[in-house]
Amino acid sequence: MITRTAFAAVLFAAAGAAAAADLTVEVADIRVQSGQLKLAVVDSADGWDGKAKAVAGEALTPTGATATFRFKDLPPGTYAVQVMHDENGNGKLDTNFVGMPTEGYGFSNNPRVMRKPTWDEARFELGAYGTTVAVQLR
Fold this sequence. Notes:
Radius of gyration: 18 Å
Helix content: 10-25%
Largest sheet: 5 strands, antiparallel
């Protein structure tokens, strides 16, 4: 016979396993193999606008035309992804004289806009079983 404590522990373990999902972000069209690819995952419009901290982030040195980032155990919910390729390693996204980026950048959903997309244009749902998001750098 199972005790109440053991039953509660089984339920808690099952709930914990169902409450975490994995996000895979596949970045394509990496132009050069220098600098750092920097990726941020945010879960709100405030995070998107830099008013709140990203829930996850990672940087890596590119080694080909594509790169894959994996974020484990995120709570299911609404997220958006921002990617910047700091090609020269100076810590910022460089722009030309009219303000257009000269280094690679991209966003979840790959919105085709001539400005930073809005939270609504870039957000996606991370379900309980995880998801893969493709981002093409511009």
